[in-house]
Amino acid sequence: MNASKLPHGVGAIMSRRTLLGGATAIAGLGALSLLPGCSSTTSKAKGNLDIWTNHSDEEAAAIQGIIDEFTQANTDIRVNLLNVGDATQYYTKINTSAVGRSLPDVFYVRTFDVASLAAKGFQVSIQDLADQNAEAVDVPDLWPAQVEQMSLDGEIFALPYDFSNNAIYINKTMFEEEGIPLPTGEWDWTEFWDTAAQFARTTNGTQDRWGASYYFSSWVWIGFLASNGGRMFSDDLASCVVNSPENIETFELFQAQLQNGAAPAPGATPEGVDSFGAGLVAMTVNGSFAVPYIRGVVADKFEFDVVRMPTGSTGRRDVATAGGAWAMSSSANQEAAFALMTHLSSEQALNTLIAEPTRSIPGRQSSAEEWTSVATSSGLPPANIEVFAEQMNTDALNQAYPKFWTEFETAWNNRTAGIANGDSVPEALAALEEEVNQAAARYA
């Protein structure tokens, strides 16, 4: 099937039916198929595959079950799964193995790392395979924003696992006790922080409650900045442009909340304690991936729900997105590896892995329909959980990530830690931009 190549950059928004391009087929490679009456992907490939992932024991067991389906349908392929549950250990292992050219055939990767790994040659394009197996891959069923993030220079390099965005978790009980109207999600950031300020409380001279907590996660802030007219990267993803008047204004607004008591400053809450779960804040910014965790830390202490993210000065939410995906190494048994990746990212697999246990949001729009059905009929909080899927359809920012993302994230973490502790925002952003563009120049 012929299709135009994928454009990249914030403004390159794909419609649901737009396909990635390139029609060159890999010689000698047969198209994937499904066994009649079941969902298992079949291939003529043979060999042994290693796959690494970074999930909880429960999720890894579910992934193993999907792999078992695959190997039962493909008896000439054997698959060895390694799960490294600790994220720091896992990504250290990925980076070390990448440098040593000893990555497994298939490995789990965060979508914001794809461009960086691909630019270094640590994972390979699957564009030709996706073109040849267009029906099985079904790119139009993927989230356009995630396709952007799994691509580099118009070619796709990964297939989806899950996809995430953020919303505002609210402590309904605290709102009701204070007599403050519950937010509906029709608000902007100024209204959000005005609401948060009403919950600040001091006891015996020490503040012991705040209105809202947020975090300086780099991918989340892409949305914060965009909704106020700012950007992190140039349209061609060749440079960092974070030092702008719009971004300074956004950072100073959020920094002010740490200083005026609307949000807890670093070290203000007990170490190791979740401020939202402990009832120390009335609201928090967190992701669709956090629903099971929030349920656990809140338990039966209070009622909670979620509402949409606030809009910025542009009138848009521009909700940032990121997720997990399956990548293929340059040393992979490519035909067998691609068949496994396709099986793991199929609608049926994502229903089992993501939709039915309501983890994050599935990487397929078709599976997200099942996710919404399960999530809204479970009787578990948050009652308004469908806002995550709704935002993906209506508010998701179509933002790709640059080749220098790894260097950017290191610089970002260092500079935003300083901003949280009171550093000058203009000076911090100027330094951040300069440091990142030195790294970006190495990819030019």
TrEMBL record:
Cellular localization per UniProt: Cell envelope
PROSITE patterns: TAT
InterPro entries named among the record's database cross-references: Bact_solute-bd_prot1, SBP, TAT_signal
UniProt KW keywords: Signal, Transport
Cellular component terms (Gene Ontology): cell envelope
Main location per the UniProt record: other
Pfam family membership, one: SBP_bac_1
The UniProt record lists the keyword NADP: no
Superkingdom of origin organism: Bacteria
Matches recorded under PANTHER family: ARABINOSE-BINDING PROTEIN-RELATED, SN-GLYCEROL-3-PHOSPHATE-BINDING PERIPLASMIC PROTEIN UGPB
Family: Belongs to the bacterial solute-binding protein 1 family.
The name this protein goes by in its record: ABC-type glycerol-3-phosphate transport system, substrate-binding protein
Organism encoding this protein: Jiangella alba
